[in-house]
Amino acid sequence: MRLTFLGTGTSMGIPIVGCHCPVCTSTDPRNRRMRTAALVRHAGQSLLIDAGPDLRMQALAAHIDALDAVLLTHAHFDHVAGLDDLRPLTMQAGALPIFGRPDTLTDIRRRFDYAFVDSSKGSSRPALELCPITGPFTIGPTQIIPFDIPHGTWMINGYRIGNLGYVTDAGAVPEAARALLRDLDVLVLNALRFEPHPTHLSLDQALAVIADLRPRRALLVHMTHSFDHATVSAQLPSGVELAYDGLEVEVMETG
User: How far apart are CA 126 and CA 92, in angstroms?
Assistant: First the structure.
C-alpha cells in the first residue's frame, strides 16, 4: 500500500492570504501546505481521502487520472469543496462512489444539488454515487473500517485501511477508536498547533495519543503556520514526523 499526502494544511492553507510570518514566507517547500487530503493506492486501486478546495492542483501534482472511490471524513468546506473537480474523471469513467457518514452525504447532496438533478443539455456535472457508511465495508479487495471521531460538536469519520490509520480534525481520540488504531504500521493524525484548541488536537495531545497507540511510524497533518517544518521536526520523538505535501510512504502489510 502506498500513501501520498496531497495536502497537510488547515482550512486556510499555508501560506495564509495576507500573512507575512516566517512560515508563510518560507522558501522551504515543506512549509507550503494545501488543505489536508490523501491518496491511497492499494491492490491496483486508487482511493481519495477528502476532496478539499485545492483538489485540482493536488490531482495534477499527483498525476491522478482515475479514482475508484472517495472517502470523506466530514463535510466541512476544506474537506469537500473540490468535489466538482472530479468532473473530468467521472466524464471518462462514470459515477464515482463517494463514501461518508449519512449526515455527511446529506450535506453533500444539499451543497452539490446540481450534480443530482437533470442538467441542461450540453452542461457538465460530476457524476457522484453517494454511499452511506454504516459499518466496515470493502472497495474491491480493500477492507475499510470506519470509526467515530469527535470534532467539536460534530462526529466525523476516521479510517483504518489495512495497517494504515487515518485521522484528521480530531478534537480527541476516544478509546473505541484507539482500539481500532493499535498495531499499525502508519498512523496519520492531526496536530493543529502548539496551544490547545476546542475542536482539534494540539501537538502535545497528538503526541500523547501516538505514545499510547505506538504505531511504527506516525505522521502529523492539518497543521497551521505555527509549525516551521525543519524546526518542529528536530524536536519530535523518534518515529514521529511532520508530513508534507507530496510525501509518499509505503505501508507495510504487517505491523
Answer: 11
Integer Cα distance of 189 and 173 in angstroms = 10
**Dist CA 105 CA 74 (whole Å):** 9
Q: Residue 42 CB: number of other CB atoms within 10 A?
A: 19
Residue written as cell 510525501?
247
Peptide bond into 198 cis (omega under 30): no
**68 and 61 Cβ atoms separated by less than 8 Å:** no
Q: How far apart are CA 59 and CA 51, in angstroms?
A: 10
User: Which residue blocks in the chain are alpha helix, DSSP H?
Assistant: 55-61, 77-80, 87-93, 102-111, 175-179, 203-213, 229-233
Place of cell 450535506: 107
Taking the C-alpha atoms of residue 245 and residue 8, their distance in angstroms, rounded to an integer, is 6
How sure is the predictor about 255, in pLDDT bands with cuts at 50, 70 and 90? very low
Residue 181 has pLDDT above 60, yes or no: yes
- For residue range 106-144, list pLDDT tens digits in order: 999 999 999 988 665 556 889 999 999 999 999 999 999
Question: How is residue 113 written as a grid cell?
Answer: 444539488
Tell me the three state secondary structure of residue 64: coil
- Give pLDDT tens digits for 224-239: 999 999 999 999 999 9
* 35 within 8 A of 26, measured Cβ to Cβ: no
In order of their start, the domains of the chain are 2-250 (3.60.15.10)
Say if residues 137 and 97 touch (Cβ distance below 8 Å): no
Q: Considering only CA atoms, which of 80, 94, 98, 169 is closest in space to residue 137?
A: 98
